Each structure stands twice: as C-alpha cells, then as structure tokens.
Amino acid sequence: MPAKKNPKKTVIKKDEKYVDGPRKMKAKGLQLLKGMKDVLPQDQRYWQFIFKACRRISNSHCFDWIETPILESTNLFIRTTGKDSDIIKKEMFSFTDQGGENISLRPEMTPGIARAYVEHGMINLPQPVKIFSYGPVFRHDKPQAGRYRQFSQLDFEILGDGAPAVDAELISMSYFILHDVGLETNVHVNSIGCPACRPQYRRLLVDYFRSKRKNLCEDCKERLNKNPMRILDCKEEACQEIGGEAPQTVDYLCDDCKTHFMKVLEHLDEADIPYTLDPKIVRGLDYYTKTTFEIFLVQKGEEKTGRQTALAAGGRYDGLIEQLGGRAETPACGFAVGVERIMLALKETEADVPPLKQADIFLAQLGVSARKQAVRLLEELREEGYHIKANLVKDSLSAQLGFANKLGVKITLILGQKEVLDKTILVRDMDTGSQEIVDINKLIPDLNKRLKKIEESII
Ligand code: ATP
Ligand code: MG
Fold first, then answer.
1. I need a surface site. Which of 39, 138, 243, 264 has the fewest CB within 10 A?
2. Which of 151, 156, 181, 288 to mutate to test the pocket of ligand 1 (most atoms within 8 A of CB)?
3. Strands in 175-306 per DSSP E
4. Of all atoms in ligand 1, which is nearest to the CA of residue 147?
5. pLDDT, tens digit, for every residue of 143-165?
6. Is the domain covering 361-458 a CATH 3.40.50.2300 domain?
7. Domain coordinates of the chain in residue numbers?
8. Can you tell me the distance from the alpha carbon of 367 to that of 380, in angstroms, rounded to the nearest whole number?
C-alpha cells in the first residue's frame, strides 16, 4: 500500500498530554464517581493529625475501639435512622445482593454500633460501655464543598448510662478534639424532649407550620405530615426563616427532660465549654431524645453557622437500644466528627498542621551485589526504627544523590561494589557533605549516634 501523502500530524500541546488522561477516563466513564473524593498523599498529614487527636482523647477517656461492617441490612437503618428521615428517603446507597437480601452502605455509624451492643450482649458488661469507631460512611448527598457521598467519621458512643454528665462528657470531648487540632468552635445545644413530652410540642409545631404551609419548600410540606420537627433542620432559607419563629422544644419539655437539660448545661458551664442554646438543633434522625448538639467553626471571632459547616454532631438516644430488641430503657448518647469538614476548616484557618514523618536516611547503591545487600540492609534499618527511602533501580550515583537532596534526608548511605567486598559502607552527612567509611557491622550504632546528634542540634 502506498504511503499516505502528507499524513496529518497530531500535535500535542505541552500541557495537553496531562489533561488527556482525565478526559479519556471521563469519556469512558472511568473517572471518580460524583461526590466521591480521593485522599491524596499531600492531604494525609491532615488526616493523621485529626485521627491522632481523636485517638488521644478516646484513649484518655478509656473508649474501646469497635469496627462494625460497612454493609448492614437496610432494615436496620429504616428501623433506627427513621423511614421518613432525609438519610433513608434520599441518601442511602441500597441494593439487593446476590442472595436477594436488601442491604445498604452505612449512612452513619450509630445503628451498627447499637446493633453490635445488643447482638453481643454488651448490656452484661459493666455499664456504661464506651465505644469508639472510625471509617467511611455513605450518603447520596448533593455534592458540594464539605458535602461528599463518601466521607469519614470518627464516632464516639457511651451506652448504658443516662446521666446528664455523660452528655456533657461527650460534648466536652468533641469540643476538645476540635480545640486540640487548633480550631476555635462553639457548641450549639438543644433538648428535643422524649416520647412523653414531644407529642404536645409536635401538635403546636404542626399548627404553626400549617399556618405557613404555602411558603415552605416541597420537602417541608411533606415533612409537615410525617415529621414536622425536621422542618427546623431544613437547609432552605425560606424554611429556616419560618423555623426561626416556630415554638421551641425547650419550652415544652417534661420535668424529667427539663432537669436533665439544666444539668447538662451546668456541667458545660463548669467545664467552661462555650455554647449557645439553639432551638433549631433537632438533628435529622429519628432516634434522638433529650440532648442534641452540633459544633460550628469560629473564624476571626465570627461563627460559621452555614448549614454545611457543622464539624461534629450528636445527641442522646435513649430509645434506640430497646427498639433494636435490647433491654428496655437502656440509655445511650454519642457523637460523630466529620474528618473532611475538619480538614477543610484546618486549611481555611491555616492551622498549624505538622508534616508527616519523612525519611531519615536515603540508601544509595551501585552495582548488582550492592543492590542485593541493600535489600537486606533496608530491613535491618527498618527494624531499628528508621524511616528509609532507597532507590534500588537507578545506578547513577549523582542521580541518587540528587534525589536524596530533594527528600531532605539527614544521612545518605552509599553502598558500592568496593564497600560490599570490604564489608563497609559510606555514610554521607547531607548537611556538611562530609563522607566517612564505616564498618558495616558498626553501622547501626554509628547512625544512632549521628541522627541523635543532628536531632539534638535542631532542638
Ligand atoms: P448536615 O446537617 O450538614 O447534613 P448531618 O446532620 O447530616 O449534617 P451527621 O449525621 O450529624 O450530619 O454527621 C456528623 C458529621 O458528619 C457532621 O457534623 C459533618 O461533619 C459530617 N458530615 C455529614 N454529612 C456529610 C457529608 N455529606 N460530607 C462530609 N461530611 C459530612
Ligand atoms: Mg445531612
């Protein structure tokens, strides 16, 4: 076949080859799902920082770690979170599995933990049972900043104790987690009563919202019949305005709920936790009773109460365990913090977030036998607790040293054919550029001395 005359050349502009990948992925439907998020290596330091703050606090308060499955029976969430809640009606990722069972990706952690408490007879343990968990949750939310379809929660629950001090302990813990990562916050707290006092309040609320019905959003018109309290939690501006004038739960609490709430507030006063009484904190889930709270960022003296900005939220749920078949009147209370929202707040406030631990040592090698020995040496150094980066592919020493420089390591070890034969290694101090031949058997004590010396000089 004759060659084509003047074949058309595809000219790839400099940057185009980089955008081409994502574009092709999109065309093939292979890109990240809407509302999902990759947590890239550069964000890991935020992640670790938040996680460590939570672990420190959960450890000092003696919480035990639990992990429940990400998948649970859809029924569990319908029975607990509530069939008329936004989460169940609009946000659950549910499907029928190969066995014909209707299952869902967990939209929150409390139902799974409460199920585990009942299913494993934790009621027989000394009460209360304090539980911590961490992991992804899934909601088909409308994606926007701070609102994803998969996000991570750190969850804290205290089951089996109804004392107001428990609510206060949890509020205080959530406040101090945020404080410890460097965020100034304010707690919004409310009480939504119990099955004894809520019906009367509900009637008043329905009467009030009926009179404003035509100005409510379509969702709230439906909520009016099914769960009018949720209208107070609506994110629409018009509904929020109407909700602002609505009767407030705290004015209709029974004596028990009122006393409980007063005591929670006394504990918060005593602990100097900044809070605001907020009648709109009714929470979006069915199982809450009595105390409910959400925590908002305060930036430059101003509180960011936009409805997307609650960093943590929780409350008491005294009826849930019984509802799941557990012992009647088992009280419980908990909260969850949203890792992504805290990360955004840390970035927004330019909080001081320490970098992740970097490599202390770079191991450079030259030649086949050096490479073989390098693999073993890496493990020995790792066992000694060092963080080591190595390049076991490139042979050019200058390329490896250039790489070590970029990493900012304190020490580079150089292993060549000669060193392997002599049973030695070159130890290069990257700050001064000085190099020393060290007996390979004395390498660890030598490094311990050098790295300690350098650490001390930094301090
Ligand atoms: P919102 O009112 O903002 O929708 P929520 O009441 O649905 O929040 P909770 O169920 O209380 O949220 O979840 C606890 C925490 O999880 C929130 O305070 C927030 O930090 C985080 N969170 C909730 N939904 C999302 C989401 N879609 N994306 C990222 N984080 C979220
Ligand atoms: Mg929500």
1. 39
2. 151
3. 185-191, 275-277, 289-299, 302-304
4. 28
5. 998 999 999 999 999 999 999 99
6. no
7. 41-197+253-348, 361-458
8. 20
